[in-house]
Amino acid sequence: MKLAIIPARGGSKRIARKNIKLFCAKPMIAWSIDAALQSGCFDQVIVSTDDQEIAEVARQYGATVPFMRPAELSDDHTGTVPVIQHAIEWVNAQGQPVEQACCLYATAPFVSAEDINRGLDILDATQSDYAFSVTSYAFPIQRAIRLNDEGRVQMFNPEYFNIRSQDLEEAFHDAGQFYWGTADAWLQGRMIFGTGSVPVPLPRHRVQDIDTPEDWVRAEWLFKAMQAEAQ
């Protein structure tokens, strides 16, 4: 069995009710549910939530909510892996063995069915523990600067000051959209950001963290521009 698991806790702080707040005329979580369903690669699309309103919205858009997430997995300090482990264990207990599971974030409106399928293909082809979305940094991380206690500028890596940007190694970061993994990798808690994982590269213009109101506005601008271009 292949599962999509969408974690959607009710207690978001910086953007109230973020998971079901309207984003370009649909609840935010609906975009992730739609992409999962359109991919056609899942036997079940589960939303793991502790919130009845989120559960109802999820069902309206075609996901299943077969359990309510327990309180001990719903606080500010619970990581993603225990939530995915809980969902896999719950489904396994119903006599439906899970082979692969994809953690799909509820606040990833740029995720596409095509990329989800590409992630599964890469996971299968490489026989890896995980395959997850990444994108490149727009600026060389080796030339990053910080402000010291006196408000002055310092380089994190001053040894790279005289090296041309094009000669520096390209760096990538987690795109925060989806994480395919084998059930064994999830249940054993194997490291996602490690050599057992392979990347699913995405273009930078389709990657946007949405943690603040400013992020939200920028994401809607990008999303509307992409929709207009596609017409």
From TrEMBL:
Enzyme class: transferase
InterPro entries with a match to the protein in the record: CMP-NeuNAc_synthase (IPR050793), Cytidylyl_trans (IPR003329), Nucleotide-diphossugar_trans (IPR029044), PseF (IPR020039)
Alphabetical list of Pfam families matching this protein: CTP_transf_3
The entry's keywords: Nucleotidyltransferase, Transferase
GO molecular function: nucleotidyltransferase activity
EC number: 2.7.7.81
PANTHER family given in the database record: HAD SUPERFAMILY MEMBERS CMAS AND KDSC, N-ACYLNEURAMINATE CYTIDYLYLTRANSFERASE-RELATED
Name of the protein: Pseudaminic acid cytidylyltransferase
Biological source species: Pseudomonas bubulae
